[in-house]
């Protein structure tokens, strides 16, 4: 390799290292999640009708309960692993973060928030609505229906994990969020998270009342109440963008002073 080529390659590597905008990890994460969601929806379409109508049948155990008992521990491990990693590798000198590095971390946080919003859509919108369609078509004989196993115990934990990752990233790496808790950010994470405990109330109610044709019943109001907390994304975005604008102005002033 010639000296000129080596210098050019070194310049490219230095530029890649110095960049503060890199959304490719977020893009690839959402692409992989999209493929995964489509795959499990196809799985549900095929095995839901073939092995998911009778919870007492052996094939229900094979294709659905085994899936649920596999996904729940893996989700718990992912939740603890991501939170533990972000905490262990936290910035222990958060006050000394350089403006350029803070800008890079803020833009990385936007990638985290995009992933969180993406997973909230699939869990709280797509799979929730198709669950309503399922239960208006098939009368359940168990709380652990194929639709619920993918909705409540797969898609909901996935968005909880994504939100937890975004919240912990901000708390451990960005001065603005590390020094004090952001109320909009807390609501943005905690609201959709509380939908998961609300599942217990929902299943308890369905055990005593047939409500397949009554989705506006008070029993379901908890889903709507906590779901609307997602609107706190606007407050979170304003806090992030305000700091981005502030840092940009500092860059501009430093450039003019040179």
Automatic annotation (TrEMBL):
A Pfam family: AmoC
InterPro entries in the cross-refs: NH3_CH4_mOase_C (IPR006980), NH3_CH4_mOase_C_sf (IPR023349)
Superkingdom of origin organism: Bacteria
Keyword match Membrane: yes
UniProt keyword terms in alphabetical order: Membrane, Monooxygenase, Oxidoreductase, Transmembrane, Transmembrane helix
GO terms assigned for molecular function: monooxygenase activity
Keyword Acetylation attributed: no
Name of the featured protein: Methane monooxygenase/ammonia monooxygenase subunit C
UniProt source species: Methylosinus sporium
């Amino acid at each position: 390799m010639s000296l000129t080529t080596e210098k050019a390659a070194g310049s490219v590597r230095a530029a890649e290292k110095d960049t503060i905008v890199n959304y490719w990890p977020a893009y690839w994460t959402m692409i992989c999640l999209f493929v995964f969601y489509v795959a499990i929806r196809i799985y549900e379409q095929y095995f839901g009708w073939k092995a998911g109508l009778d919870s007492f049948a052996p094939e229900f155990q094979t294709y659905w309960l085994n899936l649920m008992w596999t996904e729940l521990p893996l989700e718990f491990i992912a939740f603890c692993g991501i939170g533990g990693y972000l905490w262990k590798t936290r910035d222990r000198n958060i006050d000394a973060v350089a403006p350029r590095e803070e800008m890079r971390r803020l833009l990385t946080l936007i990638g985290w928030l995009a992933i969180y919003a993406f997973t909230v859509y699939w869990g709280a919108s797509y799979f929730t609505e198709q669950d309503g369609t399922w239960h208006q078509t098939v009368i359940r004989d168990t709380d652990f229906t194929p639709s619920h196993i993918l909705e409540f115990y797969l898609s909901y934990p996935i968005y909880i994990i994504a939100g937890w990752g975004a919240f912990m990233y901000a708390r451990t790496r960005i001065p603005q969020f590390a020094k004090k808790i952001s109320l909009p950010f807390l609501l943005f994470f905690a609201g959709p998270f509380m939908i998961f405990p609300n599942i217990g109330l929902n299943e308890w109610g369905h055990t005593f009342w047939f409500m397949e044709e009554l989705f506006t019943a008070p029993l379901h109001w908890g889903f709507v109440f906590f779901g609307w907390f997602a609107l706190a994304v606007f407050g979170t975005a304003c806090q992030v963008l305000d700091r981005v604008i502030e840092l940009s102005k500092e860059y501009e002033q430093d450039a003019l002073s040179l």
